[in-house]
Amino acid sequence: MTGTDAASPVPPAASARASWRDSLAVYLQPRVLIVMFLGFASGLPLALSGSTLLVWMREAGVDLGTIGLFALVGTPYTLKFLWAPLVDALHVPLLSRWLGRRRGWLVIAQLLLIAAILLLALTDPARSPLLVALGALLVAAASATQDIVVDAFRVESLPENEQAAGMASYVAAYRIGMLVSTAGALFLVSAYEGAGLTRGAAWMWGYCSMAALVLIGTVTALIATEPEQSRLADQATSGEGAFKRVLHAAIGAFSEFLTRPDAAAVLAFVVLFKFTDAFSGTMTAPFVIDLGYSRNDYAAIVKGVGLVATLIGGFAGGYVARRYSLVASLWIGAVVQALSNLAFAWLSTVAVSQWALALAISVENFTGAIGTVIFVAYLSALCKNPLHTATQYALLTALAAVGRTYLSAGAGYVAAATGWPAFFSISVAMALPSLLLLAWLQRRGHFAALGLVKV
C-alpha cells in the first residue's frame, strides 16, 4: 500500500487539525452566531438595573443599606414565569404575523427595553430614589421578557450537533454584554465627564448609549429565522382560542415539571446554586469603590482582564462539562464559584493595588463563567417540550434569580455590620445549602435520570 491508500491510518497531527477545524466550523454556523448575538442582548441590560446602577447611586451619596435593598428591583426576574405562558401561547399583533411567534416577541421586548432604559437615564438617584427604583423595575421587567424569548429561541433553534457551540457562545456573549454595561458604561460616563458634562448628565448619556446598543439584539432578531420547533408547535395549537392556549401552556409546563420525582428539591437547588455568587456580587461594585479604587480603575480591570477571564472561564466550563458527567461538573462549578469569594476577602485586607484588583476580579469572572455554563446546561436539560419551553425555562431561571433578588437584599446590611473581610467569608458559607442538596439529589439518582447531557 502507498501512503495515500484509503486504508492507511490518519496521522495523529492531521486528525487533530481536522478536529480543530470541525470544531471551529460549528462556532461559525449561522444559528450559533445568532444565538451568540442574542446572548449579548440578554446580558446587556442586567447590570443597568444592578451593579452599574449601584455605582451611580454610591457616587450620588446613597447609603449602603438602601443600595442593598435595590436588589429587590430584580423582582421581575423571579416572577417572569407568571407571564411566560403569554409568550408561549400568544402572538404580538402584526409582528408575529411578519416575523413568527418567537421573533415577534423578541422585537417588542427589545423596543420596550430601550424605552425603559431611556426612562431610567432621566432619573436622579440623589433626589428621587423612588423614581430610580421604578425605572430600574421597568428595565428589569423588559429584560426578563426578552430573556424568556431568547431562552426558548436558543433551546428550540439549535440542533444536537450545535448545542455545545451554541451554549458556550451564548454564555460568553452574555458575560460580554454584562461587561459592556458595567465597565463599558463606566468608561463612557468618564468620557462624557471628560468632555465637560456634569456627572448627572454624563450618567444620563451613558445610559442612553446603552439603550442604543439594545438595537444589536433587534437587528439579530430581524436577521434570524423562526425556529422550526416553534413553528410546528404554533401550528399544532392554531385552532385553539387565546385563553385556551395560555391555559395549556401554563398548566402543561407546571404540571409536567411538578410531577417529576423530587421536584421540590430540584427547585430548591435551582434557587440556591448561584446564591453564593449572587450574595457577594450584589455588593462587589460598592465594595471596590469603598476600598478607594476609582470608577475608571474598576472599569478598566473589568473590561480588560475581567473580559479575558470571563471568556476563558466560559469555554473552560464547556470543557469541564464535556469531560465529566453532569453531576461532577455541577460539583466543580459549585465549589469554585464559592471559593472565589475568598479573593475579595483577601483584596479587602491588602493595600490599594491595580494588580490585586485584577487578580480578584479575574478569579471571580473565571469561576463565575464556569458555574454559569454548567448551570445553564442543567436548566436546559430540564426543559423538554416545545409547547411550553419558554414557560418551563422561565420558571427555572426565575427561581435562580430568587437568590440574587430576595435572599441577597440584606447583603448591604450584613456588609455594614461585619466589614468587608467577614462579609465575603460569609458569602462562601452561603454555598453550603446548595452543596447539601446536590449531594442528596445525586444519591436519589436525579442526575442519572436526565440521561446524557451534552454541553
From TrEMBL:
**Which residues constitute the signal peptide according to the record?**
none
Sequence ranges assigned to domain Major facilitator superfamily (MFS) profile in this UniProt record: 31-445
GO MF, one term, reads: transmembrane transporter activity
Q: How is this protein annotated for GO cellular component?
A: membrane
Q: Which PROSITE patterns match?
A: MFS
Listed transmembrane segments:
32-57, 64-84, 104-123, 130-150, 170-192, 204-224, 298-321, 328-349, 355-381, 393-416, 422-441
Alphabetical UniProt keywords: Membrane, Transmembrane, Transmembrane helix, Transport
Question: Any idea where this protein resides?
Answer: Membrane
Task: Say where the protein is mainly found.
Answer: membrane
Q: How does it sit in the membrane?
A: Multi-pass membrane protein
Name the family the entry cites.
Belongs to the major facilitator superfamily.
Recorded protein name is PAT family beta-lactamase induction signal transducer AmpG
Q: Lineage of this protein's species?
A: Bacteria, Pseudomonadati, Pseudomonadota, Alphaproteobacteria, Hyphomicrobiales
